[in-house]
Amino acid sequence: NAGVTQTPKFQVLKTGQSMTLQCAQDMNHEYMSWYRQDPGMGLRLIHYSVGAGITDQGEVPNGYNVSRSTTEDFPLRLLSAAPSQTSVYFCASRGSLGGNQPQHFGDGTRLSIL
Amino acid sequence: AQSVSQHNHHVILSEAASLELGCNYSYGGTVNLFWYVQYPGQHLQLLLKYFSGDPLVKGIKGFEAEFIKSKFSFNLRKPSVQWSDTAEYFCAVRGGRRALTFGSGTRLQVQP
User: Fold this and answer.
1) DSSP B100
2) Are strands A109-113 and B106-111 parallel, antiparallel or unpaired?
3) CA A68 – CA A83 distance, rounded (Å)
C-alpha cells in the first residue's frame, strides 16, 4: 500500500510564485488534512476536508487554497508565495469521521520561499 | 476550541534513564489522545493512542501513556530510554469530529 503520497518532496520558490503541493491517498479515506510544521510550533492545521467536495479552514488558512474533487486527492495551493510560508508541509488522512482511527501522514514537502 | 500544551521543549537524558513527557489538553467533551514521534528527517509516526477504556495505554517501542481525565493530562513514559529514542515527540488531541490539534513538540536527546 502506498498510503499517503506527497509530491514534491522539496521545492524552492521565489516570492510571488504560485504552486500546488500534491497529496494522494489510496486507502479510501474520507478525512484529509494539511498541516505545516515550524520549529517550536508543532504542527498547525491549514485546511481539512471531510469528504469529496467539502473543505474547511483550519488554524492557519491564509495564503492557501484547497479543493477536494475526488476522495483520493487533496491538493494545497499557494497562490502567491511569501517567505513566511517557508515550512515543512504534511498531508494526513483518516478513515472514518466518527470512528476511532488515527491519522496517516505523508512524508512531507519541504518548501523554501526566497 | 481544543488545545494542547507540552511542558518540556527540550529534554536531554542518558541511556537507561527513565522518561516522562508532559502533555495537557483542553477540551470540554470526549477526546481522543495521541502521541506521535518524528525521527530526524522523517514523517510522524504514531506511538500510541487513547480512545476509551483502560487509561494506561501501551504503545510501540516500550512507550506507554496514562490518561488522567481529572488532570486533563496524557503523559508519555518509558522506563529506560535508548539512544535510538532521540527524536521529537508530539502530543495531539482530537475532540469529536474535529481535526487533530498538536502540541509544540518535545525534542528528546538521548546521550550514549
Assistant:
1) P
2) unpaired
3) 26
- On chain A, the residues whose CB falls within 8 A of the CB of B6 are 42
CB B51 within 8 A of CB B32: yes
Contacts B2 to A, Cβ<8 Å:
none
Residue B58: other Cβ atoms inside 10 A = 10
- CA A70, B98, A42, B16 torsion-angle sign: negative
| CA B28, chain centre distance (Å) | 20
Cis peptide before A8, with omega less than 30 degrees from 0?
yes
Interface test with A, best of B39, B102, B106, B107 (most A CBs within 10 A): B102
Quick: pLDDT tens for B40-59: 888 889 999 998 899 999 99
